[in-house]
Amino acid sequence: MIRAAELIEQKRNGGEHDPEELAELILAYARDEVPDYQMAAWCMAVYFNGLTAAETHALTDAMVRSGETLDLAAALGRKVVDKHSTGGVGDKTSIAVGPIVAACGVPFGKMSGRGLGHTGGTLDKLESIPGYRVELTTDELVAQVRAVGMAIVGQTAALVPADKKLYALRDVTATVDITSLIASSIMSKKLAAGAQAIVLDVKVGDGAFMKTLEDARALAELMREAGTRAGREVTCLLTDMDQPLGRAVGNALEIHEARDTVRGDGPADFTELVLDASARLLAYSDLGVDLHEGRDRAEAAVADGSALEVYERWIRAQGGEPDPAVLERAPVRRPVQAPRDGVVTRLGARAVGTVALELGAGRRMKGDPVDHAVGVLCFAKRGDTVLAGDDLAEVHARDETAADRAVTAVLAAYEFGDSSLPEHGIVLDVVG
User: Fold this and answer.
1) How open is the CA angle 247-358-426, to the nearest 5 degrees?
2) Catalytic residue among 85, 185, 278, 285
3) Would you give the distance in Å from CA 60 to the centre of its chain?
4) Residue 116: which pLDDT band, with cuts at 50, 70 and 90?
5) Is 292 one of the catalytic residues?
6) CA torsion 154→206→237→186, rounded to 10°?
7) How many angstroms separate the CA atoms of 314 and 42, rounded?
8) Which of 3, 264, 273, 291 has an alpha carbon 20 to 30 Å from 235's alpha carbon atom?
9) Amino acid 114: pLDDT
10) Residue 376 near residue 312 (C-beta atoms within 8 A)
11) What is the CA radius of gyration of the chain?
12) C-alpha distances in angstroms, 65 versus 58, 60, 83, 93, 253?
């Protein structure tokens, strides 16, 4: 019988777990033999005292072993690729990358999660599409990737159940932003789901869990090492999350923007990240292309409409309707106007994410419902010149009271100056 209290005390006091004892704690939690309140205490102890590299690898391995594993390459006879983000504000990248990569002939299979705090979750966004099924059996997943070229699903009960439980628990216990737990959570899903090549988008800045490039590199190296140990090819992109990605923040709003990007009409920063990630996945694939040709093929798939065709087939295959007209629209839409002439010097990503959360686009407690229609559209971004009275953003709310609060909060997320700022791209660095 696992003695969870002793391991909590050990980590609380700064001790190091024996890898086998740590693995048993995680496996017992997956079997419902350790209650949430004890795992919450353990997560908080880890928050303050961390995990060593050995503990992190033991944790990752245990979460993989807590359920079944899937070898997509063997099932499909093809090299399968995947892309994952550490979580940001307005980050709907996978929803656009998948169809582009699949349109180029490379299978894309992905397990995604739900929102964590002020960051949105891919599954919550996809569930804003009426009828979309996030739960597929393993056989259904393989069959869909074979027939359509891609699938994005939730964690099944059979794959990494320990992480599924721990992921939800961390969201409501303020223990999300722990490097070792983030790395283990992400890589256990990637390893169990069977992709052979993975691009990891490690967010950096105000709206990310990693606030500095140094911290982001540390997380990237930890995840890349976990992938390499398991025989996977892994590249980590360190990307800017000091402001929201793209314009849309909120579930249905982000689905609109992802679809627009797949057909070539997306915001510049989001489009650049989507094409960069797609190019790297194509270069990792068995197509035999380099990064430059991968970029050319990704751009061609968008330009000729084949990526949009795959997007529509994918959504229909999982029970949804790809026409954006069916997405729910919030009943109240309110502009946020510039108070003065000037240049936008800052748009706080976390502040905007928190506004979306308070509107109902995210969840505060485990099991909270999500309002798919609400959110924020950010028209003016860092470096843009605006005039007094210009629309900086637009709030989509359920009622007038919520809209009033949100307009005030979004305006407070903006800062203005009188001169332009030096520009930098969305990709800040690459590890691997």
Assistant:
1) 30
2) 185
3) 19
4) low
5) no
6) -30
7) 40
8) 264
9) 75
10) no
11) 21
12) 10, 9, 22, 29, 37
The one catalytic residue in 84, 110, 203, 224 is 84
Q: CA-CA distance, 328 to 229, in Å (whole number)?
A: 44
Identified catalytic residue from 17, 125, 165, 170: 170
Nearest to 197 by CA among 161, 174, 163, 224: 224
Q: Is the pLDDT of residue 377 over 80?
A: yes
3-state secondary structure of 196: coil
d(CA 279, CA 195): 17
Q: Locate tokens 């960051």: which residue?
A: 119
Residue-wise pLDDT tens digits, 341-361: 999 999 999 999 999 999 999
**Residue in 163, 177, 201, 260 annotated catalytic:** 163
Residue 190 annotated to the active site: no
Q: Name the active-site residue from 11, 118, 189, 363.
A: 189
Q: How many residues does the chain have?
A: 432
170 is a catalytic site residue:
yes
The C-alpha atoms of residue 184 and residue 2 are separated, in whole angstroms, by 21
Mean pLDDT value of segment 238-254 = 97
Q: Are 334 and 397 in contact (CB under 8 A)?
A: yes
Helices assigned H by DSSP within 172-212: 179-193
Domains of the chain: 4-50 (1.20.970.10), 72-325 (3.40.1030.10), 328-417 (3.90.1170.30)
Strands 385-386 and 427-431: unpaired
- Residue 71 — φ and ψ, nearest 5°? -105, 90
What integer best gives the mean pLDDT of the chain? 93
User: Do 152 and 84 form a contact (C-beta atoms < 8 A)?
Assistant: no
The SS3 of residue 381 is coil
Distance of CA 71 to the CA centre of its chain: 23
163 assigned to active site: yes
Amino acid at 426: I
Helix pair 53-65, 161-171: axis angle to 10 deg: 120
For the ranges 28-32, 70-74, 94-98, which has the lowest average pLDDT?
70-74
Among 51, 65, 52, 53, which Cα is nearest to 23's? Answer: 65
What pLDDT band is residue 1 in, cutting at 50, 70 and 90? low
